[in-house]
Amino acid sequence: MSGERSLAVALLAGGRSLRFGSDKAFFVPPGAAEPMWRLQLDKLLALEASEVIVSVGSRSSPTGFSPPTGVRLIPDRHPDQGPLGGLASVLGEIRSERLLVLGIDMPGVTVAALGLLLEACEPGNGRGLVPWLAGRWEPLLAIYPRVMSDVAEQRLARGERSLQGFVEAGVARGMIGSWPVPDACAGWFVNLNRPETS
To answer: What is the DSSP pairing of strand 128-133 with strand 176-180?
Structure first.
């Protein structure tokens, strides 16, 4: 779809899913034929980015993931540090200038939604873009510049795991811009936290 050669895309599939009660990555929603990780990955593959990654978290052996050829599985270098640990690991591995991330538990996100986010992110300025909704950042459907890798590593070294704080640090450095989410798009950000709500 986008064919952007300076763009990497990553599915953050490494969460512990404590509230969900089982691994969200392998949950098969009602009416679906494939687990969440594959459904979400297919949306990212449609963007035709130069790098496609699945962040598999702290799993010592990512059994169950069988992505298409060319998709990389990246484990966390910082085990049990939450989403920022996965994001830092991916940012430290990519060659592309920017990284679009998608959370495993955001089934409302469509390929068209990803396209809108990409269109809103100005090409050539080197900055990322994070949606802003109801007074909060939405950091798990966002675009980050590769240079944010150092910021992520520094924050993890200080024990600061908050994604909200990570985004704020990027904004303060001029590395990230804000994208106010239109009301009609709020459904993209509904999280899958319980099997019965899928």
So the answer is: parallel
Q: What are phi and psi of 100, to 5 degrees?
A: -95, 125
Q: Where are the domains of the chain?
A: 7-191
| Below-50 pLDDT ranges, the chain | 1-3, 18, 21, 194-198
pLDDT in tens, 3-36: 455 899 999 987 655 455 457 888 888 877 788 8
The pLDDT score that the predictor gives to residue 12 is 94
CB 44 within 8 A of CB 114: yes
CB atoms within 10 A of CB 197: 9
CA angle 110, 164, 102 (to 5 degrees): 20
Distance CA 195, CA 55 (A): 22
If one looks up domain 7-191 in CATH, what number appears?
3.90.550.10
Q: What secondary structure letter does DSSP report for 195?
A: G
- Residue 43 token pair: 């949306």
**Six token digits for residue 56:** 């598999």
Supply angle C-alpha 156, 189, 160, rounded to 5: 10
Q: How confident is the model at residue 18, as a pLDDT? A: 46
As beta bridge partners, residue 12 has 55, 103
- DSSP summary character for residue 175: S
Structure tokens at 158: 């200080």
Compute the C-alpha angle 53/9/177, nearest 5°.
140
